[in-house]
Structure formats: structure tokens, C-alpha cells
Amino acid sequence: MTLPLDTEAVRANFPAFKQANLQGWGFFENAGGAYMAKQVIEHYNHYYTSHKLQPYGAYPASQEAGKEMDLAHERLAKALNCSVDAIHIGPSTTANTYTLGKALEEMLSAGDAIIVTNQCHEANTGAFRKLAKIGVEVREWQVNTQTAELDLDELANLLDDKVKLVAFPHCSNIVGHINPVKKICEIAHSVGAITVVDGVAYAPHSLPDITDLGVDIYLFSTYKTYGPHQGVMVVDPDLAWKLPNQGHFFNKDILRKRLVPAGPDHAQIAACNGIVDYFDELAKIAGTQGASDPYRATSLIMREQETALIEPLLAYLRGRNDVRIIGPSTAEDRVPTIAIHCQKPGQELAEELAKHKIMAAGGHFYAYRLIDALDLGIDHGVLRMSFVHYTSQSEIEQLINALDKVL
């Protein structure tokens, strides 16, 4: 099989592949956190070495620190095709949604309604469900229990002019199906609702075009997009000014501080420059650096790479009668996060795969409500195998051979 990306050139950007303790291991738990790119590590090391101090001060080292942080915001905005004022970097996506929930608690009133799904990671549903305590009606957009997917007709049935917010995932961290975000946002906006999209499980596979999607709030985790452990929250600036300030009262006029009450590690923000550096290098490998939008063009190549890699694994799983693939059984409209339900519990399978040098995981992966809705057994859970564009063909073959032994 000829892949669109040179796998060895891609993997050369990740020091983990050169570590002695990881040699021979196939890494299939990327949905839990991807390997960090060397460009990120270099920025991290530079910040800690050159100016691990309070940024934005009166002296040169402090000023340089602040400039590196500002540059990270600017470059992330360009990569995501949004305004720099829309970028908010917090400690994690879970912390960011919690902050959003507190802001909405001050903004919404009893009698208002919101829509959440049971396909979400709990981070993108739990914080908003708590609004019920102030009298907000929480409506659940439920998955089709046969396909595990979300039906747009079901969303339409839940909508009316009481709905002020619709929160849903770009794709589930278990189902893997790519939801039609742009269409869902159009439907939600037809009644004036705010849209909150959890992109944590999607962003590692394709950088989202925020402007094209038309989303009001988009969240993802940088430690899953080859960077440090943080959460990026992209919020339409007009909406960010309308949301009640969650920071210190004296910072209420600083947009970047209104929704990040406890700032994350300064070095981690600066290190986010390395994420964009990596995607710039990936564009060179893909030959897309000259495109009008190299980030979207590169994402398309990443998608082609992952599609080619996922096909043999899905074909193998489709050929077994003792495995249920959760979500689409073909590569179309899905990311390479594949969860399967078998007679053996997911964690037990993960432990058996580890004996064959396969790193995978089992459980409910914080999608507790989804596992329950699909009647998969909370304690039983699923086996999840997740990979990205740096995964090699030989690792896919290694996984299939290991599955053949443990299933």
C-alpha cells in the first residue's frame, strides 16, 4: 500500500519513537493523548530555560515570555481560521466547560432550555446538565441505539424558541462518526441557540476550520493534538463579551481573562507554538505548504493517510462474528478511533493485548451515558483502539495479529 504521507518522515518529528522502552510497541491509545512533537518540546525547554518567570513585566526576559505566549494565540488562530480574540487557553477542556457552565448559570433563567447529547464525553455534558438546578430544562438528544449515531431529525424534534444552547461532539471518543457540525449549527442557529462543540476527539485528525463550521464555541485538548496538557476554547468574541465574567473583577475588560479564571502554565501556552511548527513541517512533508490554506490542505492529506490505514483493520473486524464495532464499520465519515464490544470486558482485552506489545485501553472513557444507552455494560465497557497519521502500516498489522490471538 502506498500512503500519501512518508511515515518515517512524519515519525522523525516524535522523540517517543526513538525511546528504547517503546521499541516494538504499537501505540493505539492516541485518543487518550498523542505523542508530543519535538517542536513542542523545544519550545517548552526554551521557555523554562530562558524565562521561567512572570510574563508581561517591565524587564526584557519577562517581555519576551509574554511575546511567546501572544504568538501562540496568534498562530493557533491562523491554523484554526478564526480571530485571535477567539482563542482562550485554559488548564483542560473539562475545566473550560466547567467555566462555561458557571457563566451560563448566570446568563440563563428558569424556563430556558438546553440540548445535550448522550454521545458526549461527560466533560461536554455534565457541566451543562447542572443548569437544571436553576430551573433550566435539559433536553437530551439521544443516539440511535443501533448505529450509535445522532439523527438530525431527532434534534429538530427537540428544538423550539426556548432552547438557548445546543452542546454536541464533533465526533464521539467511542463512536468515531464525524457529526455534520456545520449543518447542526445551522439548525441550532435557526432558533437563536448557542452551539458548543466538543472537538477533542476530532482535532487530532483534522484541524477544524472554525469560520467555515459556523460554531459559536469549539473546544479541544492540545495534549491530543501533539502538544502540552491544556484545553483550547475558541469562543466567538461577541459571545465572549456577553458571557458573564468568570475571572477576577478587575480583569473583566480583558477578553482573554474573562473565561480563564485560573491561568494555565505560561510555558505550556508558549509551547503551543510548537503545535503549529509541527503542522508547518507536516505541510512540507505533504507538499501542501504552498496551498492558499496549508492547514486545511494538510488536514485532507492526514485524512487520506488515516483512511488508508483504517481500512484493513475495519475489514478484519467486519469479518468476525464475535465483535460489535461501535459506530460506522467503514472508513467513510469516521476517524480512526475504533471501539469494539466483545464477550470479554474491554479492560481485560487491553491487558491481553499488552502481552503482545499493543498499547490500547478498555472501559467507558467518560462516555458513561453512551455506554449505558447502548447497553454495553458500564463495568464491561469496550476495547478502544485509536491511532493517528503517524501510525505505521506495520503497527496496524501487529494489532490485527494480536487481536487474532486475544479475541
TrEMBL record:
Transmembrane segments: none
Start and end residues of each Aminotransferase class V domain: 27-234, 301-399
Signal peptide: none
SUPFAM superfamilies according to UniProt: PLP-dependent transferases (SSF53383)
Keyword Transcription regulation belongs to the record: no
Keywords tagged on the record: Pyridoxal phosphate
Domain of life: Bacteria
Record flagged with keyword Plastid: no
The protein's name: Cysteine desulfurase
Source species of the chain: Maritalea porphyrae
